[in-house]
Write a structure and sequence with these properties.
four-stranded antiparallel beta sheet; Elongation Factor Tu (Ef-tu), domain 3; Helix Hairpins; alpha+beta; elongated
């Protein structure tokens, strides 16, 4: 009985051991699975791709107009010319205003003389009154004349300031340092108040405004590295995310891919460039942001 039991149990055990050996051999022959594809997918998922444009910083591109209506006596700039802040861009003819300013200065000089005379009359009337020679009414009249002369003098002074400010508006000055992108008028043209004279931009500092789809906004962080490409250029530019607005807005740039929707909401992410050499203001670019 003992021998039979041993034989009965030995056959299943042997079969089990043999199956294990075969499985081990097959496992050793099977090639290992390559992890490159999952890694590549993870890398692609960590990138946010968007379209954008090269722009100036806020307040660094202005359209300069005139607050003075008239004929342009001179336009002093040309396109692509660099100008400094306060430089004269154009002059509007202001002959009548200048003549009025000269008259106002003459009236002020007359009022100033009257004020000096009135002050002297007050002092004289006070001396006479103190010496029991003059009347109190004479002192009162002299003081009244003095005050009236002083008021006329201040009115003349205010008129000078008003006309001087008006004449100053005839000179159109640049509010920033930059380059003249566009000249809107020429010498001899008649302009109205508010007419555009020139567009000026500071091209020394540019950045990129990227339109990130609202579905990708959670993966964009301040300081994230950015790669910028331009169509037809082998050069790439680098930068970092420097500003993320708090609200999404409508798409401004029409997608180059016709399959992409044009009515989606986007986040205008601002990208500071490490170098802008070779980039032109207003150029369309592709932005690749390393997401979270």
């Amino acid at each position: 009985m003992t021998t039979k039991k041993l034989l009965t149990f030995s056959i299943p055990v042997a079969a089990f051991l043999f199956a294990g050996i075969l499985a081990a051999r097959h496992a050793g022959d099977a090639p290992p699975q390559a992890p490159e594809r999952p890694l590549a997918l993870a890398s692609a998922a960590s990138r946010v791709v968007a379209e954008g444009r090269v722009v100036t910083y806020p307040g660094r591109q202005v359209v300069v107009g005139t607050d003075f209506a008239g004929t342009l006596e001179r336009v002093a700039v040309e396109e692509k010319q660099r100008v400094e802040r306060g430089a004269q861009l154009a002059v509007v003819r202001s002959d009548e205003e200048r003549a009025a300013l000269a008259q106002a200065k003459a009236r002020f000089a007359e009022a100033e003389a009257d004020a000096r005379l009135a002050l002297a009359e007050v002092e004289r009337a006070r001396r006479l009154y103190a010496g029991k020679v003059g009347a109190r009414q004479a002192v009162d009249r002299a003081e009244r004349d003095r005050d009236a002369a002083a008021a006329r003098r201040e009115t003349a002074r205010a008129e000078i300031e008003r006309l001087a400010a008006l004449v100053a508006k005839a000179r159109v000055l640049s509010p920033i340092s930059g380059v003249v992108l566009e000249k809107h008028v020429s010498t001899g043209e008649t302009v109205e108040r508010g007419s555009r004279v020139a567009t000026i931009a500071d091209l020394d500092r540019l950045r990129v405004e990227a339109e990130v789809d609202e579905a990708d906004t959670a993966r964009v962080a301040l300081g994230a590295p950015v790669l910028v490409r331009a169509e037809g250029e082998s050069t790439t530019w680098t930068g970092t995310v420097e500003e993320i607005p708090d609200a999404v807005t409508g798409r401004r740039i029409r997608p180059q891919d016709p399959a992409r929707p044009t009515d989606t909401r986007v986040l205008i992410v601002k990208v500071a460039l490490a170098s802008q050499e070779g980039l032109k203001l207003g150029r369309r670019v592709e932005v690749e942001i390393r997401g979270r």
